[in-house]
## 1
Amino acid sequence: MSLIKLEGINKYFDKHHVLKDISLEIEEGDFMTFLGPSGCGKTTTLRILAGLEHQEEGLIVISDKLVADGQAQFFAPPAERHLNLVFQNYALWPHMTVFENVSFGLEGRKRNKKEIRERVESSLEKLQILAYKDRYPSELSGGQQQRVAIARAIVTEPKILLLDEPLSNLDAKLRVEMRAELKRLHHELRTTMIYVTHDQVEAMTMSTKIAVFSEGRILQVDKPIQLYQYPAHLTVAEFVGNPANNFLDATCRESSKTTFHIHSALGEMVMSTDWIERIEKDVVLTVRPEDLLISRTPQKGSVSGTVRAVLPAGPETTIHIQCGETILLAKEMGVGTYLPDSTVYIKANLEGINLYDRTSGLRLNKIPEQKAQDLNVYV
Ligand SMILES: Nc1ncnc2c1ncn2[C@@H]1O[C@H](COP(=O)(O)OP(=O)(O)OP(=O)(O)O)[C@@H](O)[C@H]1O
C-alpha cells in the first residue's frame, strides 16, 4: 500500500501550466528522487505535497487521509501532513547554537528538558555533529551547516522527509560524502524520503526509485538500474547516463515469423520478434557506451570505424569512433591505448540495445523476463 498518492495534479502560475497531470505513488520507506532539468516542475511538486503551494486540480492522499483536493479547494495545512522539509539554503538561525537550532523544532510540543536533550543529541549524533552542539552556524562549514539542517528536520521524527537539492551548495567532494551519509541515514531511520535533484549521479546512487520529470510531466518512475538499462522514453535515455547514450537512426525489417532485422550504422542485427512489442519501420536505436565492444581486428557482426578521440579518465576511457556519418561513444575500463585516426571494429552487446518509436519517443522493446527478475535484486 502506498503511503503517498498524487493523482492528476495540475498547477498553473498565471497562464503558465507548470504541472501537467502528475500522478505518482510513493511506498512507505522509499527514497524517491524527483529528477529532471531545471524548470521541469520538481520543486513545485514537492511544495504542493508539503502544502506550501496549492494545485488547481488533483488529489493528494497521505497515510490514507485526503490532505488536498484542488477542485474542492481543500488544502490541509503543512503541519497536518506529517512531513518535514530541508532546503538547499540551510536557513539556520544565526543567533542560536547548533543545539538550539535543532531543539527549536521540538519546542511547544510539551516535552520535558531531559527528553528534548536526548532527542537533540541523538539527531546530532546520527549526523556526526554532536561535537559542534555549542557552536553557532557561522562557526561551521557549509557541509556541517547542512547536517544541522537535516538534524533539525529529523528530530521531530517525521513520517516523511522532503529534501530540495540539499547538497547543491556543497563542493564536489563534500557532496559525494554527504550522498553516502544520507543513504546511511535513510537505511537507519527507514523514513520515507523524497529528494529533488537535477544531478543524475546523485539520483542513481541514493534512490530506491526515481521519477523523471520533463516539462511538467513525469516520463518514468522506476528503480534506478531499470531506468538506466531500460529507459521508457528517449528523453529519459538522453538524460540518464554519463557519458551519454548513443542514438542511431535505424530501420527494421521483418525477416521471418520469429525474427526481424535492424539496420543502422552498427550494421545488421537479427533479433527475436518476442523481444519487441511491435515492429516499426523507422526507429531510434540506443546503446550505452559500455555496451559497444571494440576490437582491433574484424569480428563476426562488427563494423569498422575510425578513432576520433581518446579520453582516459583514470579508471575508464571514453573513445569517440566515427562510423560512416555517425560518431559513437564507447567506454572501456582501464586505460585505452587506441591511436587517433586508427581503424577499429565495433559491435553492440545485443542485451544493451533499446529501440524507440521515432514519433512518440516511447520504448518498443520489452524487458526480458530474466532481466526483470535480476533487476529486482537492486531494491
Ligand atoms: N512562484 C512562481 N511563480 C511563477 N512561476 C513559477 C513560480 N515557481 C516556479 N515557477 C515556474 O514553474 C516552473 C517549474 O518550476 P520548478 O521550480 O518547480 O522547477 P524545478 O524542476 O524544481 O527547477 P530547478 O531545478 O531549477 O529548481 C518553472 O518554469 C518556473 O519558472
## 2
Amino acid sequence: MTIGVNIHKTLKAGPRTFQLDAQFASDGKRVVIYGASGAGKSQMLKAIAGLSRPDSGLIELDGRTLFDSSAAVDVPARERRVGYLFQDYALFPHLNVRQNIGFGLQRGWFNPSSRGEPEAVRYWLEAFGLAEVAHQKPAELSGGQRQRVALARALVAEPSALLLDEPFAALDPALRVRMRAELDALQRRLDIPMLLITHDPDDAATFGGHVLTMSEGRVAGEDRNG
Ligand SMILES: Nc1ncnc2c1ncn2[C@@H]1O[C@H](COP(=O)(O)OP(=O)(O)OP(=O)(O)O)[C@@H](O)[C@H]1O
C-alpha cells in the first residue's frame, strides 16, 4: 500500500476548537497510528475512508486520488475500496451473522435475505469459524465472534486496504491478546494492507510495521519496526 495524507480540518464544538493538520506518507503493509485519546486518529481515519470531509488537502491511496480539494476531487466512500472496522464494530443488532456479513457486499440498502447465501459470505463464515453461529444475532455472540463478524463484513467486498479503528478496545485483556494474534495471521494470509489506529502501546508493539505517533491533530513522529 502506498498512502499519502495531507489534510486540514477545523472541528468546532461550542467554544472548543480542534485543529486536524495531519500529514504522513507510508508504503507499509502494516501502518499503526498511535496516540492518546483525542489526538485526532479517528478523524483522520474517517477522512481516509470518506466518512468525513477535510476542509482542504490531499489523500492518495495506491496511486488513486481519493480527495484533492484543489482539484475538487472527493471520491464517495463506497467507491474508495477501503474496508472500515468501527471501534464498536457497528453490527446491525436485528440482523444475524450471515446477514451482517452479507451487508458488506453493499448491493444497495436492503436487508440481505437469510436464505440463498452468496459464495463470498459462505467463504468468510468458514474462514472465521462462524458457520455454526451464522443464524445468531450480535447480542448472542462472544466479543471475539463479534469482532470476526465485523472483520468479515469489511473484507467480503474485497477492499484494497483495511482501516481499523481501535480493533481490540472492546475486548477483555485475554481475548485482546488472542485477537491480536488472529489479526496478525490474517494480515499475513491475505496480504491485505492494514492501517490501524490505537491508543494502546501494546497494539503498536505487537502489530508493528510502520508506527506513526499522533498528538494534538498532527503526526509527530514515526518508527519502522518490521
Ligand atoms: N464532530 C465533532 N465536532 C467537534 N469536535 C470533534 C468532533 N469529533 C471529534 N471532535 C474532537 O476532535 C478531537 C479528535 O477526536 P478523535 O475522535 O479523532 O480522537 P482519537 O485520537 O481518535 O481519540 P480516541 O482514541 O479516544 O478515539 C477530540 O478533541 C474531539 O473532541
